[in-house]
Amino acid sequence: MTFEYILGRMLDRVPDTVDKREGSVIYDALAPAAAELAKTYMELDVVMDETFVDTASLQYLILRCKERGIEAQGETAAIIQGTFTPAMLELTAGTRFNCDDINYAITEKISDGVYRLQAETLGTAGNKYSGTLLPVETVNGLQTAEITGVLIPGEDGDTTETLREKYYASIDGESFGGNVADYKEKVNAIPGVGGVKVYPVWNGGGTVKLVIIASDCTVPSEELVQRVQTFIDPEANHGEGLGIAPIGHTVTVTGVTAQTVNIQSNITFISGWSWEAAQSQIEDAIKTYFAELAEEWEDAVATIVRISQIETRLLDLPCVLDITDTTLNGQAKNLQVDADSIPMIGTVGEVGT
Question: Which residue numbers delimit the Baseplate J-like C-terminal domain (predicted)?
Fold first, then answer.
């Protein structure tokens, strides 16, 4: 429905005895209306796109999701653990520190010399597992300040694609009254949680086990595990329905564990390279592969570390010419990681070392 097509149809309805050439009275009278109609058809195309989940933009996809009780998740702030010396130094809530380009503020004391800090920048940028904290303002008596872990990972808000996946997931697995889909939906909505596996009747009737992974696809902190436990089924009142778990469900929440994978390979390097020079690149490539496996953990029946994948990724490095004889934990075969574990890189070395 272009301007030319619409105008042509309109002029076809005018008798040929009338001058219809461009610049004529009838042409100039019909052209503005044809232009407006063409614009209307373009806007109708947009309306059609925004009507369906497959093509809707984020603004209208949020409205479609609300129809199914799905809320778009906004950005959350990372909560980290900071260790300060001297340990007896008392720091007040609100004291601000900087690491790289992120500022953190103390929220509460955990123990002597150990404090909880919250990132002022929302999203995953605040997920720093280590680094030096520099006081924004002078802190008398402070000697050292270090980040020693992420307690609750920060999350980026839902994108159009992640929200669309949530919509379809709500259809594929209808959640209701404490079924598996219901537990997955509720647990995944908790800030800091990146995935969950649900084990019903794992220790007798009425028992449910939830194994969670942090939103950055790492082993969750004990604080995050306890936060989820309290939200789902408080330990002090198991099965009483004081959390979101149905009455009679005794829920145990645990976190994934890290299973160490030691790797050895016989690597032929490009001229000018050696193991010492290339080791950091090799380890980074393996860590990237392991991170991808961790991202797939929630939906994977079994997590398998494959020798072929490791060798392929190392061959993509500019310093590696060839690779053979790769072993995982001393065996020349793929390694199946425990169901509730994710792979963690251990020692990486050459065969014979």
Answer: 261-348
Cα distances (angstroms) measured from residue 163 to each of 60, 152, 160? 11, 22, 5
**pTM, to two decimals:** 0.77
Contact 289, 218 (CB under 8 A): no
Separation CA 301–CA 254 (nearest Å): 18
Number of alpha carbons in the 13 Å side-chain half-sphere of residue 340: 14
CA–CA gap between residue 330 and residue 323 (Å, rounded): 16
Q: pLDDT-based confidence at 20, cuts 50/70/90?
A: confident
Kindly state the average pLDDT of the residues 160-177.
82
Structure tokens at 177: 């009254």
Q: In this structure, what DSSP letter does residue 130 have?
A: S
Where b means 16+ CB within 10 Å and e means fewer, 150-170 reads bbbbbbeebeeeebbebbeeb
Residue 323: is it exposed, middle or buried by C-beta count within 10 angstroms (0-12/13-18/19+)? buried
Distances 47 to 36, 66, 70 between C-alpha atoms, Å: 16, 18, 22
Place of tokens 């070392």: 353
| Length in residues, the chain | 353
Q: Work out the average pLDDT over 14-20.
A: 85
Query: Which two three-digit tokens encode residue 30?
Result: 């019909």
* Confidence band for 353, pLDDT divided at 50, 70 and 90: low
Is the Cβ–Cβ distance between 326 and 311 less than 8 Å?
A: yes
* CA atoms within a 13 Å half-sphere pointing along the CA-CB vector of 158: 22
List beta partners, residue 269. 320
Residue pair 248/206 in contact (Cβ under 8 Å)? The answer is: yes
DSSP state string for 142-185: --EEEEEEEEE---PPP-HHHHHHHHHHHHHS---TT-HHHHHH
| Cβ atoms of residues 216 and 194 within 8 Å | yes
Backbone phi and psi for residue 9, each to the nearest 5 degrees, phi listed first? -65, -40
